[in-house]
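Hey,

The postdoc asked me to send both predictions to you directly instead of through the lab channel. I've kept everything plain text so nothing gets mangled by the mail client. Protein one:
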Amino acid sequence: AEAAAAPGGGSCSPAGGGSVPVLFCFSVFARPSSVPHGAGYELLIQKFLSLYGDQIDMHRKFVVQLFAEEWSQYIDLPKGFLVSERCKVRLVPLQIQMTTLGNLTPSSTVFFCCDMQERFRPAIKYFGDIISVGQRLLQGARLLGIPVIVTEQYPKGLGSTVQEIDLTGAKLVLPKTKFSMVLPEVEAALAEIPGVRSVVLFGVETHVCIQQTALELIGRGLEVHIVADATSSRSMMDRMFALERLARTGIIVTTSEAILLQLVADKEHPKFKEIQNLIKASAPESGLLSKV
């Protein structure tokens, strides 16, 4: 490929041979190194990771910038840029709030089922309904090949996941005492799944374990969808204010039907009929969604 020169010449001088000297800047650091002549964006990112990997938060969004002498400042790396001469680049974390679109695809989604346990049955409002919806979501996950992570809050005292919920094929079923589901074992399981971008989260209680899990997940750069008809609390006031707070942070509050149909996306999807049959077996109209 023909090397593209930086607009305005960049902060560069010609370099011969098979490699080009590049100064890599990140935060307060600047480290000289080199890349092959003609290296592009991907190789620059790899070099940043090799130099600063222990300091870069991979869950954040970044932009690569090039120092342009014409402007005497950094500019966003031009589209199609290839290194052809000595230059200076930097990696900048984006501070602006990004609009969350909420697109879901099976290949980039994980389901989190939080603490749907037997001892909560008499205390959680509409518990029978959220069990029914949760089971339907897990059936959909199996049909679409979506990984499922399940936690149980102190099962020794609070019992295991209710029998109505089939955990067959779950990637991880884990006891916990921490309210958030984001445990080291869960983070390790997520790291094993390539391309994870979105988490579909449901269970109990909305204002405790669901809320704390969601906030930790978005803090790690993941998009979170909370299934309103599959999450509840002992108090409807706690549930309502938790969902309002989470929605204001950019977390998507949605429904099980919306989730399942977004994941198939097309009537011609090979699993559409089976997903449609799951939706038709809907839970009773409990009034839960009127209390979002």
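Protein two:
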Amino acid sequence: AEVAELRARLRAVRHTVLVLSGKGGVGKSTFSALLAHGLAADETKQVALLDIDICGPSIPKMMGLEGEQVHQSGSGWSPVYVEENLGVMSVGFLLSSPDDAVIWRGPKKNGLIKQFLRDVDWGEVDYLIVDTPPGTSDEHLSIVQYLSATHIDGAVIVTTPQEVSLQDVRKEINFCRKVKLPIIGVVENMSGFVCPKCKNESQIFPPTTGGAEKMCQNLNVSLLGKVPLDPQIGKSCDRGQSFLAEAPESPAMLSYRSIIQRIQEYCEQHHFQEEKIM
């Protein structure tokens, strides 16, 4: 019955993409927010962003939705909308203050994730983007298990170039393979910094073991692209604005455009292959 409920609620979701990383602080939520904004730039597409980082929900801040409340209707919880075609759901909307700590054990976290999937009235959605916490634990197992009732196009894995990050990201890739979650590809975030004045490039996080490119070659995973450091990204997230709209010609923006296009192409191809099998 539970599987049937989830399937009924999510049957109108065309593509589902998980954003993962074994490491915290690599820019997962930033990437999820910008991916959602980038996909929603096409007004013919309906996009949903689900934040399942229960203990550190930063999506409401990044999307300019702090202080918003979730409303309940006869058809379930209503997402909070940034634009007409971009809806967001996060535990952050259920807290009385952004500074409130969520001190929950695994079963309660899992129950809320199930509620987000079963009780939110997502409606017709072209892309459901799921922002996850770091690691390979409760929340990750739950979301993969619950979404297996429908389908997942795959996971985008975010890393930074240094070995300390890559070490945990290899574990995440291993997790995906163990739970049979397709990997769309890897994004190397904070990949070099070009000084806006002198134009010299610095490696803030030196890729001592070859960075994401070498790791992807070794593990036979696609590298979707490298996003350079840009201070404007952090400023835009703090203000709850879309960096894609604020800096349309920056090198980071051009990299994001290319990555988003590759994710769209993968999802369309994946959908086409599924239809052929059916």
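Summary for protein two, as requested: The chain is about 40% helix and 20% strand.

Thanks,
C.
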